[in-house]
Every structure is written in C-alpha cells, then in structure tokens.
Description:
The protein has six helices and six strands; from the N terminus they run αβαβαβαβαββα. A hairpin with a 2-residue loop joins β5 (146-149) and β6 (152-155). Strands 3-2-1-4-6-5 form a six-stranded mixed beta sheet, sandwiched between helices. Residues 126-132 have low confidence and may be disordered. α1 (2-13) packs across α2 (27-39) and α2 (27-39) crosses α6. The protein is α/β, with parallel strands linked by helices. It is globular.
Amino acid sequence: PIFVALSHFLHHHQGRKRFLIGYSGGPDSKALLYGCLHLFAKNSLVVAHVNHNWRKESTDEELLIRQELEGLKLPYYIKRLQAPHEHNLSENFARNERLQFFSHLVKELDLQGVLLAHHKNDVAETVLKRIFEGAHLTSLYAMKESSAWHNMVVFRPVLTVLRKAILHFLRQK
C-alpha cells in the first residue's frame, strides 16, 4: 500500500523541484522516507527533523537521526526547539514552530513542498479530537492529501494507508 500511495502521489505531483520530508524518526516518517528512497531519485529529497526536547532521550535520538541521514547521504536540516519561558512547549506551539521551520526551508531551498507521514488512522484521530473539542458538524473535516500552510504546500502522500500497513512495510524492510 505504501508504494501504491507514493507512486500515485509521484505521478500527480512530480515536478522539477525537490521535496522536503518532515522526519521524526518514528515508524510513520521512517516508512515515508524509505518508501520515497525506493521510488524517488535520491537527489530529489531533502530531510528536516525537529527536536522538540520533550524527553531526556531527545538529544540521543537526534544524534541517531543525524547518523542515519548521513549514512543515506541525504541533505538534512535539524532544528531544536526551546519553549518560551512564559509557557510550556505545547503541542500547538511545537506544530507551529515545526511548520515555520519547514516553510523556511521550502522557500530558502526552492522546494516543491513538504511531505508529511500522516496516514489513514490520523484522519480518524483528527475528526475525533475535533468532536471532543466541541466542534460543530460543519467543521468536522479531516486532513487532505495536499493543503497549504502560509506559502508552503503540505503533501500527505500516505493519507490513504493504514498504520498497520505502514508497520508491515517496516517489518519487511
């Protein structure tokens, strides 16, 4: 399913510009990265990682990601977040900082957009989250395969793939 989704995406969105991959190092983004490496030309990818510094292990994980990306010989950029003193590093603050970092790279490097590893299970989670937050029925929309954030295109090429299939792909790799 991952290769099918990525092939479909590539067929509809391949241009002359490279793509940025938002890479957390977790299973979802790892499957996206390695699926892209299988189907895309290596020189069409740039990787970005954001270290949220939420856990003690964050710095060690950042080092492992650096080593992984250097081993793959991919260009990459890493940003470390520090929470403003007036509040903790919230999910919304982190998401905004991450998207600003990606947007800066997309503009600076003249990239086509950012690829994120949101999948089918994330769609259901987003709708449920909006229900629990008291959203009106008219605002119960989910993520789309492509959208815009300020002047950056956000692509979600594996949005039709279940997490179970993503984990199966990783086990095979």
